[in-house]
Amino acid sequence: MFLDQNDLAALVAFRHDLHRHPEISGEERETAARVQAHLEALKPDRVLTGLGGHGVAAVFAGSAPGPTLLFRCELDALPIPEISDAPHRSEYPGKGHLCGHDGHMAIVAALGRGLARKRPLRGRVVLMFQPAEETGAGAAAVIADPAFEDIRPDISFSLHNLPGLPLGHVALASGPVNCASRGLRVILDGKTAHASMPETGISPMLAVSRLMPQLTALTTGSFPAADFAMVTLTHAVLGEPAFGIAPGRAEIWATLRTLTDAGMADLCARAEALIAQTAGEERLRLSHSYEDIFQHCENAPEAVAHLRQALDQEGIDHDAAGLPMRGSEDFGRFGACGPSAMLFLGSGEAHPALHNPDYDFPDALIERGSRVFLRVVANILELQQ
Question: How confident is the model at residue 1 (pLDDT cuts 50, 70, 90)?
Fold first, then answer.
């Protein structure tokens, strides 16, 4: 174990401080400042800020040429009120670190402590604290940032805690591990009318009543089959909250989900054809847009092999249980830079689920997650003695 009790106490305090001050996607300014201060105390060779918004990266360089390894975690919290009696509970109403990103940051910060003491012999290690994972926008924004070119990795790693798995157990597999998903927002415009004369208007009511079951009926296949596709209605609104107005406008929000990006292209085409046909038949003007776009997350065999080797060397049990997952993760974007892989670290079989209001990251995972990552660095780049 490369962390002593003082290290662990400092990392837990860091995690709790982040937990008390959660910031949602795109608003992570204070979180980034806290991370920057923590990293600069470790004296990395370089710290980059403002990546893709509020992203922060620290670079630990070896003395000889070699590959660049990137370890990514997430800055953002969720717009969900926390239910907790813990002393470190959220101080910001309506916001909480209920997905464990505070713990992921602590793990990557712990890796930084190890690298501050024993830098790689060759190559570089980039610790990437990425903004806006929850909306699917952050990874793409970081990669598109011109400053990212200076730290573009040859191989990337990440982890996510996972309730339902035994505490500290790891799930790891090659191939798709997280689904592609995106939000479809449909707007239907007709013409309002007096409630006593609805025939003088054009109501979207029938279109909404048709589309809600028809969109969900686009669901096909059984997970995790290659043809799996799922549509989940998440929100709908019709007209105005008034008794005297027949509606002239409606919105439907739906989440589209597939195992792969190729499946998503097909599902989008089917959904767009359906809404266009229905709007036309009901004489409605149609507009639609996509938000919260996540590509599927693909674990490259080469990167998985490095993680498996590290897990075996550290004596940590692992299998492919629960993979792939139906949930989405924007870490898959880093696969465009080179091989990438994410492992899933068990938070406990009876632990509250991710995004539950009573969820809290288990501090016991900080040491285990960072130990795996440091072993990966040692295997690929070697460490100074």
Answer: confident
